[in-house]
Amino acid sequence: SQRKDGGWAWMARNNNSDTFVTSMSYWALSAASAAGLPVHSHTVSTAHNWLKNQFRRVAAKDNDAKAVILHALSTSKKADFANANRLYRERNRLSSPALAYAALTFVNLDRKEIAQEILQVLETKSKEQQAGPVRICWWDGTRTHPWLDDRTEVTAVSLLALSKVSPTSARVKQAVDYLMFDPTWCGGISE
Prior knowledge:
The chain is mainly alpha-helical. It has helices at residues 19-34, 41-57, 63-74, 81-89, 96-108, 112-124, 151-165, 170-180, 183-186; strands at residues 127-131, 134-138. It has a two-stranded antiparallel sheet. Helix 1 packs parallel to helix 3 (63-74), helix 3 packs parallel to helix 5 (96-108) and helix 6 crosses helix 7. The protein starts with 18 loop residues before the first helix and ends in a 5-residue tail after the last helix. Mean pLDDT is 92; it is low at 184-188.
């Protein structure tokens, strides 16, 4: 459940609100509200305030956390464009997850042309391989935060960004094939 400070923790027994869990919860609440489901305004406003405060608290060079927070805020059109633009200017130095979340932020801010430029960088970071009859691709995570170090999750969020901006990119089908890939059928993915 939501903490008194407005965030959510990774585990119930943990007293600290977590950036990633709170960002994902806020994203889910924004989607629920957009779908017409009732969402308690106090829950959303305290989560919004927690995310804004957390953005100010993260380290200056922690673009991974900044991208996740800005994406969450952008789902309700509350991301600050100046902060998002700083990520855009850093795009050539961002990790794959930061690029994917930054692109989604710009999609939500109705700036698909900027998202496209970010995705061009993201596409260069993909890994690909033949897997049986299909060519697959994926993106590796980053070790800066445990919640961004999962190849499947990073590939899924990269796929989401690509499908919103460049649905005809060859990487879209390759990423879908990666996510649907059954290693027992094709012998697994070599590193």
